[in-house]
Amino acid sequence: MDDYNKSSAQYLIGTVSKRSGVKSDLVRAWERRYQAVTPIRTAGGHRVYTDQDIARLKLLNQATNHGHSISQIAQFSLDELKKLLQQEDTQTHIGHTALLTGEKKFLAEDYIEKCYAAVLAFDARALESHFENAIVELRSQAFIEDLLTPLLTRIGERWKTGELRPIHEHMTSAVIRSLTYILRNNNPCPDHAPRMIVSTPIGQLHELGALLAAIMAELSGWQVTYLGANLPAEEIAAAVKYTHAKAVTISISFNADDHIVPKEIRRLRKLIGNDVALIVGGRAACYYEAVLDEVGVLKIQSYKHFREILDQLGTQ
Question: What's the rounded Cα separation, in Å, for the pair 97 and 193?
Fold first, then answer.
């Protein structure tokens, strides 16, 4: 890696994040795990970076957005990074995408086994480490679709058979929530991007599905306001009004066998009107198909289908 003139270090991490396009938390993750940059610390303990640090982060960000693993390129010099990106521009898009997809599928399968072993051992620290590495190597979308989704499905199945306890699933969810700063879109969203509200209806306390939907919408170019779980229809509708949202996405993860969810969905549709798209997903959404069809919601069948919905709404 290039030598640094530390006497020129003058930028705090907030400025570095704005100038490089890399979120502050991700800068710290790259620094901690891969020594991608080596800032000095002031007497007050603040990280201070150089212009060269910012240049490196810009190039690393471009390279990882093209699918390169940060673990493999973190120590590249500036010239090596520039050369890598120049070579990237000369490759055929179709051939590179096919290769990248194959590599990510293989990586995801390997990480699923590592992560499940950590869950089985109830080792939150190991699980967090595997997740952090997988997010950086796979990028957010592939991490969610190719690793996280099948992993959570396996955890649910093994919980039903008695191999795992509910605490294993709760521990996994807590680790995922703690890493959302890395998962979220690293690229600034344009002001004209369509806006969305994401939440769960009142009585629905499990928010992981909603959180992942919010991240996927951000990755698809939407400005997302994530409200968390367990909100009444009136509050969700108020958020739509304040943000001028084009769509609302809610997640239903638990079948309570009561009338609260149908009542809230009908109420929400009435409050937001028919001009705002109402999108519903979650593992328990199938139990409420009658009311979903009644009020005319868009039902999420898969992450791919969700992206298709977002792309279609975004062009309207």
Answer: 26
Rounded Cα gap, residues 214 and 181, in angstroms: 12
Residues for the chain: how many in total? Answer: 316
Q: What is the CATH number of the domain that holds 178?
A: 1.10.1240.10
Query: What range defines the domain where residue 215 resides?
Result: 195-314
The kind and range of the H/E element at 280 are strand 277-281
Asked if 294 and 207 sit in the same domain, the reply is yes
How far is residue 72's CA from residue 86's CA, in Å, rounded to a whole number? 17
Give the HSE-up count for residue 4: Cα atoms under 13 Å, Cβ half-sphere: 20
Q: How far apart are CA 53 and CA 47, in angstroms?
A: 12
User: Measured in Å, how far apart are the chain's first and last C-alpha atoms?
Assistant: 47
What pLDDT score does 168 carry?
A: 92
Tokens of 37: 């940059």
172 CB-near residues (< 8 Å, 6+ apart) = 119, 127, 151, 152, 155
Dist. CA 35–CA 53, nearest whole Å: 11
Q: Which two tokens stand for residue 281?
A: 């997903």
In sequence order, what E strands does 142-204 have? 195-199
Three-class SS state of 199: strand
φ/ψ of 290, rounded to 5, equals -60, -50
pLDDT at 126 over 70: yes
| Res. 255: pLDDT tops 80 | yes
Look at residue 242 in the predicted model and tell me its pLDDT.
97
189: in domain: no
What are the CA-CA distances from residue 300 to residues 30, 90, 256, 292 (Å)? 34, 38, 20, 11
Chain centroid offset of residue 182 CA: 7
The tokens 């190991």 sit on which residue? 126
6 pLDDT more than 70: no
Query: Any bridge partners for residue 247, and if so which?
Result: 196, 277
